[in-house]
Known about the structure:
Layout: H1 3-24, H2 28-48, H3 52-77, H4 99-102, H5 107-117, E1 121-123, H6 136-151, E2 165-169, H7 176-187, E3 190-194, H8 196-199, H9 206-220, E4 224-228, H10 245-264, E5 269-275, H11 283-288, E6 291-294, H12 300-309, H13 320-329, H14 335-355, H15 373-382, H16 389-402
Parallel strand pairs: 2-5, 2-6, 3-4, 4-5
Antiparallel strand pairs: 1-3
Helix pairs in contact: 1-2, 2-3, 2-5, 5-9, 6-7, 9-10, 12-13, 13-15, 14-15
Amino acid sequence: MSSVDSKLYQYAVQEAQAAVELDENGHYRKALNKYQRAAEILIQFVKYNKNPIMVRKCHDQIEQYLDRANVLRAHLSGPRVKRGRPSSRQIEPKEGETKEDEGQYSAEEQEIIDSISGTILTESPDVKWTDIAGLEVSKQALREAIVLPIMKPNLFTGARKPWSGILLFGPPGCGKTLLARAAATECKATFFNVSSADLLSKWLGESEKLISSLFKVARIKAPSLIFMDEIDSVATKRGQGHEGGGERRVKTQLLSEIQGVKSGSKKPLLVLGATNRPWDIDMAMLSRFEKKVYVPLPDLTARVGIFKIHTAGINMALTEEDFIELGVRSEGYSGRDISNVCREVIMLPIRELDMGGLLENTDQEVVVRDINLKDFTKTLKKVKPMTTGSALRQYEDWATEFGEY
């Protein structure tokens, strides 16, 4: 067996193992997708493998995976069909799913939903506005663009139409993903969390099909919010030398789908993109995002709040004045930078106990000291902010040129 064949077989095994694990945990739609994927990879593998024993083994596995996929498909779309699989456990609806839920979609709609269930994460995030310190301007912009049109659709009629595409841009670690999750929670929308890796596939035509299915499912499950993180990865400027034919087709399909949302969708469906590099996005794609929201570094009040959020539940000897001092000392830090500082500080008392040999005896009771202001000041000297002044100026210049809200 060549190294390429071996990797292909191992990939199929990994997909099958993931399918069984999802199956055992009751995530049947995702398991169905994984079983089908494992079977497809093995079909490709046996085309080039000359070992008759290996080929026979693969055919048995393919039949087994497809049988189980058929059982799951029958369970998810209609009456159960009792057939065997690697486990004899009876199928029951997964957590949060009822038999009434299963019947609310047609067979065609359910098939489209199943096609993305193993790739695109569909979730109901539990993030509230109060979980995000600061960013009041960004919160209000998203509330007007996303939350209000879904909660109060009667207010957005005639010429007052809601935005269909919103772009969040700004330095890394400033809360763009949290803002998207909070907006979805606030308006009780189905949240589709999509990354560039989810949309790109080495199989010809699969990426375009996945994008098309994603938007179809979003319409079926409307009100929906499609969040595309790091959208610059799949929407770079066209015509550049390193661009391949597959990448260009993906961009064209994505442009077409977002334009369709903008012009023809009657149900509440919004596309929310996030990027740390807005200047790399293709102009045609940029024009699809009608509203652009700058998510800046946290201000003093926000930094104080972030320190409090990431030290909640920890014994500490800090006063309100100490938190304000930390907010002043951490100017230029992003929310993620402050989170890293807090995690380092929280570990200091544990590290001291370990280095003192007090954690060697598992039966010995130890007392963890409170963290204090000195711990933070020492750590702030070691953990530096990741966003430079020149990078901030670049964001501000781009916001001035292309507009922001």
